Amino acid sequence: MAEDKTNTKLRVVSSLAGAVAVRGLGHTYNTSGRVTQALADIELDIKPGRFVVIVGPSGCGKSSLLMMMTGLVAPTSGTILCGGQPMTAPDPDRVGVVFQEASLYPWLTAQDNVEFPLSLRGIPKSERAARARDKLALVGLTGFEDRYPHELSGGMKQRVSIARGLVQNPPILMLDEPFAALDEQTRISMGDELLRIWEETGKTVIFVTHSLTEAAYLADEIIVMSARPGRIIDRIEVDLPRPRTYAMMATPRFAELRERIWNQIKTQASE
Amino acid sequence: MTLDISSPAAAGRRIEPGTVRALLGLGVLVAWEVLPRAGLIPSLFLPPLSETLGALVSNWRDYGWHLLVSLRAIGVSMLIACGLGIVGGLLAGSIVSVRRIAQPLASGLYAVPFVILYPLFTAWFGIGPQAKIAFASIYGLLPCLLGTMAGVQTIDRQYVTVARSLRATRWQMISRVLLPAAIPTVLSAFRVGGALVIVGIVVAEMLTSAEGIGYLITRYRTLLDSPRVFAGILVVVALVFAFDELVKLLERRTRHWRLSTRSGESTT
Amino acid sequence: MTDAAAETGIRRQRVGGAGGLVTWAVALAVLFGTWQATLALGLMQPELLPPVGDVLATAFDLVRRPSFLGHVGVTLAEISVAFVIAVPLGVLLGIAISESPYWSQVLKPIVFLIFSIPKTIFLPMFILAFGITFGQKVGFGVFSTIFIVLISSFSALESIKSDHVRVARAYGATRSQIAWRVYLPSMAPILLEAVRLAMIFNLTGILLAEMYASRAGLGQLIANWGENFMLKELLAGILLISTAAILFNEAVRWFERKCEHWRT
Asked: DSSP state, B94?
C-alpha cells in the first residue's frame, strides 16, 4: 500500500474511482476453425493507488488481458470493473493507456500529441495547451513541447506517451510493456521516473512486463501468469520499502522475489 | 488497411480470389462479343471480339510484316538503351559523386513528357527508322541508367570490401563483383527500359512514320476500320506481355544468383 | 538516438533547397553550352538547330502571342479537368477496394496488370469512339492517370499503422475522427507523391493525344511546328513546356519534403 506522505502536490483521491476488479474472465478465440483458449479464470481485485505488475512468459496473454482491461477488446466471458463500472469500451477518463510502441503521431509535436485525447473531445485550445504542458512538465519534458517525435529519443517518446495517458487525469493508468523497446539504462531510469510520477499522482498503476527485475523493482503486488491458457498462478506482495533504490536490487530479499517468480514461470515456459 | 476483422468462419465460404478473377476475365470476353453485337455498344467504339480476331487472322501478312519492322527497330533501340544504360549505370553508380548529381536531375527530368521531343527527331532524321530508333533509345536509356545506378547502391557493401581487401582492380570490381551482384537490379532496369523502348517505338510509329505496327494502327484508324485498329492494339499488348514474360524467364533462370545477394532477397 | 543527442537538438537539415537550384543552373549551362558548341563546331546546321539566343527570343515572343496563349489555355483546361476527375475518383476507388480484404485480393492484381500495359496504345480507340474533341482528350487523360492514383492509394492505405489507429481508439475517437485525424495525415506523404506522378502521366497522355490528332492545344502546335520545320518555335515550345512541368514537379516535391517526417 502506498505510504501516505505529506506532499504539496495534489493527489488523486484514493477512492473507489481507482479500483480495478476482474471477475471470472476467460477468453477464447478461433482461427480457421480451431478454438484456442487464451485466458482462463482470471480474478483480480486491485485497490486504488496500488502499483500492480503482471508478469508471465511470452504468449501467456498478459497483454491481451490488459487490452481487455482497457476496454479495447471484449473478453468472451467475465466482467471488468474500473471504478465500480464495467469497462465495455475505451474510456480515457477512467483509464489512461500507454503502449509498448509509443505510437506518437509523427505529424504532431510532442505537445500536440499530449493534447490529442483532449482535442478529440472538443476542448478549447487554450485549456488543452495548459493541461498538456502541465503533464509534459510532470514527465520532465519541459522545453521539448515543440519537438516532433523523430527528434526525440526512445525514452523521451515514452515519456510523451505517458503524459498523453495522464492528460485526462484518469484515476487508473495501464501500461503494456512500455519500456521493452528501450535500452537497459533507459529502462532503469524510466522505471524510476514512473515511480516518481506514481507517487506524485497517487494513481492506480497496472503494468505488464516480461522482466522479472522490473516486476520486483516496481511493484506493490506482482501477479504471475501461466503460459497459455493464461491463469493466475501466484500473487506476491512486495514488501521492499519505498522509495525503491537501485541498491535494493542487490539485497537477498530482492533475489528471493525474483527467484520465486522465476520458479513459477520456468515450469510454465518448459511446457 | 481495414479495421474490420471478418470472422474466419465466413472466409471459408467465399470463392478463391483467383477464380473470381478468372470469372471476371471470362465475363469481359463474353461481354466483348455480346454487347457490340446486341447493339448496346456502338461497334465503331468496340467491335465484337470475333470480328477483331477475324481481322487479325485475315490480315496476318500485313500485321506480320509491320510487326517485324517494329521488332527490328525495337531490337536495335533496346541494345542501345539497355546496353548503354546498364553499363553506364554500373559505372556511374559506383561513383558516389556522379550519383548524387545525376539522381535529383533525372527525377526532375522525369516530369517532362518525352513525346514532345519526337518532332525534333523527325525534323533531324526524317521519317525513316533512324528517328524512331534515336527517340526510343533515349526514352529507354534514362530509366535503365537510373535504375541500375539506384540498384548498385543496394549491393551489399561487404562484397566490395572483400574485393577491395583482395586488391581487385576497378575493372575486376565491376565485372566480377558488381555485375553478378547487380543482376536483379539489371533485370529490373531492363524490364522498365525495354517496356519504354517498345512504347517509344510504337508511339513514334503512330505519330509520324511510314511503316511499323503503330503506323498500321493509325492508317486503319483514319479509315475508321475499328476491327483492324483493335487487332493492331491487341498485337501490341501481346508484344508487351511477351517481353514481360521473357524478362520473368530470365529472372527465374538467375534465381540462385539473386537469392544469395541482399538485393536479390529484397526483390523475391 | 540518445537523450543527449536529442537534447542538444542536433538534427542536420538536408541541404535540399540551395543545393538543388545550383544543380539545375549548372545543368542548364551545360545544355546551352553544348548546344552552342555543336553549332559553332559546324556539327549541325542552324536551320536544324537554331542558336540558343534565337530560341529563347522566340520563347519570350510566344508567351505574349494571344494565339499561343489560346492553345495553352486549351491544354491547361484539358489537364485540369482530367486531373480533377482522375485523382479524387482514383483515391475513392482505392479506398473502396482496400476496405475489403477479399476484394483487395481479387481486384488489386487486375489493377496492377492493367497498369503494366502502356495506355498510349489505346489512344486510337478513344478517337474512334469519341472523335477529336475536348471530351475525348479529357477521357484519355483520366484513363492514363487513374491507375497510378489507384496504386498509390493502395500504398497509402497500407502505410497506415494499426498502432496509430489503436491509440486513437484507446482515447475514444469516433470513426470519423479516426479517418480525419489518423488516416489522412498518415496517407498524406504518399498521396502527395501520387499527385505528382498523376500529373506526369496526365500531362504525357494529353500532350500525346494533342500531338496525335487534335485541332487545338500545345501538343498540336508542337507537332505542327515539327512538320513545317519551324525549329525555333518547336524548340521554344519544348523549353516552355519542360520548364512548366519541372516547376510543378519540384513544387510538389517541396511539399513532399515538408511532410517527409510524417512517414510512418
From this structure: T
Cβ within 8 Å, pair B208-C227: yes
Q: DSSP character for C132? A: S
C-alpha distance from C264 to closest chain A C-alpha (Å): 7
> Does the distance separating the beta carbons of A116 and C261 come in below 8 Å?
no
User: Cα(first)–Cα(last) distance of chain A, in Å?
Assistant: 35
Angle between helices C218-227 and C231-259 (to 10 degrees): 140
Domain containing C195: what range? 51-262
Interface test with C, best of A104, A107, A184 (most C CBs within 10 A): A107
The domain tally of chain C equals: 1
Residues 175-204 of C with CB under 8 A from B: 196, 199-200, 203-204
Q: Is B14 on the interface with C (CB under 8 A)?
A: yes
**Taking CB atoms and an 8 Å limit, are A153 and C2 in contact across chains?**
yes
The predicted model scores a pTM of 0.78
- B203 near C CB under 8 A: yes
Residue B16 CA to its chain's centroid (Å): 30
Confidence tier at B266 by pLDDT (50, 70, 90): very low
Interface predicted TM-score (ipTM) of this complex, two decimals: 0.85
Distance CA C260, CA C13 (A): 12
Report residue A269 as a C-alpha cell.
Answer: 515456459
**Burial (Cβ within 10 Å: 0-12, 13-18, ≥19) of residue B41:** middle
Backbone angle region of A75, left / alpha / beta, with phi > 0 → left and psi within -120 to 50 → alpha: beta
Is B227 within 8 Å of B37 (Cβ atoms)?
no
Residue B91 cell numbers, joined: 559505372
From chain A, pick out residues whose CB is under 8 angstroms from the CB of B11.
32
3-state secondary structure of A12: coil
For chain C, say whether B217 makes contact (Cβ under 8 Å).
Answer: yes
Give the contacts of B109 (CB within 8 A, at least 6 positions apart). Answer: B142, C246
CATH class of B49-267: mainly alpha
**Shortest CA distance to A12 belongs to which of A48, A36, A53?**
A48
Residue among C99, C165, C207 whose CB faces B115 most closely = C207
Question: Which CATH number does the domain housing residue C92 bear?
Answer: 1.10.3720.10
Q: Is B9 on the interface with A (CB under 8 A)?
A: yes
Q: What is the architecture, at CATH level 2, of domain A8-94+171-271?
A: 3-Layer(aba) Sandwich (3.40)
Strand A51-55 to A221-225 pairing: parallel
Domain residue spans of chain A: 8-94+171-271, 95-169
pLDDT by position in tens, chain A (length 271): 444 444 433 444 446 888 999 998 999 888 878 888 889 889 999 999 999 999 988 888 888 999 999 988 899 999 999 988 898 888 888 999 998 887 888 888 999 999 999 988 889 999 999 999 999 999 999 999 999 998 999 999 999 999 999 999 999 999 999 999 898 889 989 999 999 999 999 999 999 998 899 999 999 999 999 888 889 999 999 989 888 888 888 899 999 999 998 888 877 655 4
DSSP string, C69-100: HHHHHHHHHHHHHHHHHHHHHHHHHHHHHHH-
Q: How many CB pairs under 8 A join A and B?
A: 9
CA C26 to the chain's CA centroid = 24
